[in-house]
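Quick question: what would this complex look like in 3D?
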Amino acid sequence: MRRLFPYKKLITLILLVAASVFLMNITGSSGDNPSLWEKLLWKGMQPFLGGFLAVKHKFDEYSVLFQQKEALLEENRELKSRLDSLESLLIRLKEIETENQRLKELLGFREQLEQEYKAADVIGRSPSKWFSTITISLGSEDGVTVDAPVISRKGLVGRVLKLDARSAQVLLLTDPESGVGALISRSRDYGVVVGGSGPDTLVMRFFSKDADVRPGDQVLTSGVGSVYPEGLVIGEVAEVYVPQPGLVKECYVKPAVDFAHLEEVLVMIR
Amino acid sequence: MNGKRLSFFIAYALLTPLMLLAQYVYLGSTTGLDLGAVLACSAGWLVPVPASWLAGFGIGLIQDVFVGRTLGFCALSLSLVAMVTSWVRRFLNPRMPFAACIAAMVSTGIGDCVSYAVLRLSKTQLAWEFFLRGILPYSLIWAFALIIPVNLMVNGLSGIIAMIWPDNREKGSV
């Protein structure tokens, strides 16, 4: 052993690199079948996570109690006035919905079955600056499956990447490994929306050179591929550009969802 | 391994899960904050080579568990960060103001560049502009701002551990 002493640093370095590569190999498994090591590490972390969440909830409750009464009253008045305007908007929306239903029947479209969604709390956010994921409070025991779409009230959030019995990891649209079939609502030009450009920026790559796209256009899921249903809101076109002369257009998309402040989401149950 | 070094290891083993859990539950990474990298810089600064590399590796491994993607990516990246910090430390006078901050910034910058290269080699579509504008500057700022408080926390905690578990060899007993 003493003979190895002069090479201690080199041996340590080689061992660390080998261990990293080995771990990367054994854990690059599919989301619905995590390795034994991942399961063990994740299980070991659960009690700590539960404790932290309990502290967080208590802290949130107390912070609300300390808010000023006057501010709450003012907020209450404002919310009441907003509620009035929203009620009138709701009546109008119901009218539009009825009209839409009628038009669908007229055109002979078969009414699509409503998909089932379940509400989940966001219980964790990835501490890595390289990847964009969140952890939600529903898992395989609640009927969640890998690749199930996850949405919020404002639009598409992402899809389920990995599953545990009582929690699931969601790959956000902004993650560098995310890709969604999308289309421009106005011109019906198809493309793919990819992440990896920042926490509040997506990039849409078009299939056609002559894609008709302008800033302000709404971007929806195209339904191409089997993961996401058609018509979910992704965001709005912010800027159109051509990466290199002769290549197809691309555009920056501002996501409809504020990923930094997600608290509750809906998961599609298949 | 002597008692002092062991107390540092225990301090990192206690602080890393706690700090990463706090980030996991409350903060996420939206502000570009990477507490794992700061802890690895701290290990590189406070713990001698090659123990600091092991500490960086361990911190990275714990971060890998929280991130929940490929185990080993953060471990490799943070052992490199700890390694570079301990290397830069040799060229700096530790008593110089902000010496630790400079070492932390250099090592975090190099660590981020290598991580970005690894991700690009593995066909991950991480935009160059986002790396330059959205990741690297924040990493450097956080490393600069947090290395001294984290070092103080580790020193304090390892001091308490050393009091509970004194190093017999330092006292002269066998």
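Answer marked as accepted. The first helix of chain A runs from residue 8 to 27.
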